[in-house]
Write a structure and sequence with these properties.
CATH class of the largest domain: Alpha Beta
Radius of gyration: 20 Å
Bound molecules: ligand PPE
Largest sheet: 9 strands, mixed
Number of helices: 8
Number of strands: 17
Order of helices and strands: EEHEEEHHEEHEHEEEEHEHEEEHE
Shape: globular
CATH architecture of the largest domain: Alpha-Beta Barrel
């Protein structure tokens, strides 16, 4: 259950957690017209630091552009600053940040372009996405009977609220059938992604991941893993992945803000590799956690410190 924090940022000012309410006839409720992000802030020796906040804000602005949500009223720098301030005023060390842009209240009807855009940012403490054991032990997953969004239907590069109806179908089906997560195929039947994670495959020392044209979200963690792997001399090949390649892989793992780097130990009850976290996955996890926990120098400039300065008074 979500533990409330004190403040939520709304259209440029801090409001109380319980005051962040919208009208039931807001456009977003009927039509799913929102774009959003999920960002983690980690506790480091020099205080809380937000992971790749600029890239997340950029993706949110891209998502808004795809949906013709113009005139947000805030530029990227202001949104980054708002997130830093929000973590500070809520006095959190590690948390998950959820900015949302939604079409609000006014007219009803599919094209209600004059309805105001509302920008909210909330944060709270969020633990491990696929269970406490998942990062070390790996998870058991299935191939979903639901496909990912077909091209030219709902744009997969946008992180839009409506896309998560598809994610819900994938995730609910998987969990009801006793799996932690489902892997969806794209419309052509090739591997796409999990309901809330990108996917990587390791075979014979080569790392593969589906390309952006396979209806995947352009994950920030995906990009981070590509960069970390390259740094280790293990280039990642973005290529179409047939479903059966998963079953015969040496290692398969998920990446995502919430899931971080989660090994997959079985798919459709077929054991992957040795049935436990593999060496490439473990090495990448180690690199990733050392950067985000501040144990290794932040050579990629991924961390934005929430400096310990005087908190700005909330209004
Ligand atoms: N694909 C999907 C469909 C997706 O939702 C996510 C993030 C990713 C890939 C990985 O993207 P990135 O976080 O930038 O590495 N999923 C969010 C969902 C959390 C939720 O359940 O809500 C997340 O990880 O924050």
């Amino acid at each position: 259950m979500l533990t409330p924090t004190e403040y939520i940022w709304h259209n440029g000012r801090f409001i109380g957690w319980n005051d962040a309410k919208i009208h039931v006839l807001s456009h977003v409720v009927s039509y799913g017209s929102s774009v959003f992000e999920g960002i983690r802030c980690y506790a480091t020796p020099s205080g809380p630091a937000i992971f790749r906040v600029r890239e997340h804000v950029r993706r949110m602005i891209d998502s808004a552009k795809i949906y013709r949500m113009d005139n947000l009223g805030y530029n990227a720098g202001q949104l980054v600053d708002a997130m830093v301030e929000l973590v500070r005023v809520n006095k959190l060390d590690a948390c998950y940040i959820r900015p949302i842009i939604l079409r609000g209240y006014g007219e009803v009807g599919v094209h209600a372009g004059n309805n105001p855009l509302e920008v909210y940012i909330a944060c709270w403490e969020w633990g491990k996405y696929l269970g406490e054991e998942a990062l070390a032990q790996g998870v058991d997953v299935c191939i979903s009977s639901w496909n990912r969004l077909a091209p030219n239907t709902l744009p997969a590069l946008a992180k839009a609220g409506a896309n998560y109806m598809n994610s819900q179908l994938i995730r609910m089906e998987a969990q009801i059938n006793g799996y932690s997560e489902g892997i969806a195929l794209d419309e052509a039947g090739y591997v796409s992604e999990g309901s809330g994670e990108n996917i990587f495959v390791v075979r014979d020392g080569r790392i593969l991941t589906p390309p952006l044209g396979a209806s995947v979200l352009p994950g920030i963690t995906r990009d981070s893993v590509i960069k970390l792997a390259e740094g280790l001399g293990l280039p990642v090949i973005e290529t179409i992945v047939p479903r059966e390649m998963l079953y015969i892989a040496d290692e398969v793992f998920f990446t995502g803000t919430a899931a971080e780097i989660t090994p997959i130990r079985s798919i459709d009850r077929i054991v992957i590799g040795s049935g436990k976290r593999g060496p490439v996955t473990e090495k990448l996890q180690q690199e990733f956690f050392e950067v985000i926990n501040g144990k290794k120098p932040d050579s990629y400039g991924w961390l934005t410190k929430v400096s310990a300065g005087q908190p700005v008074a909330a209004n």
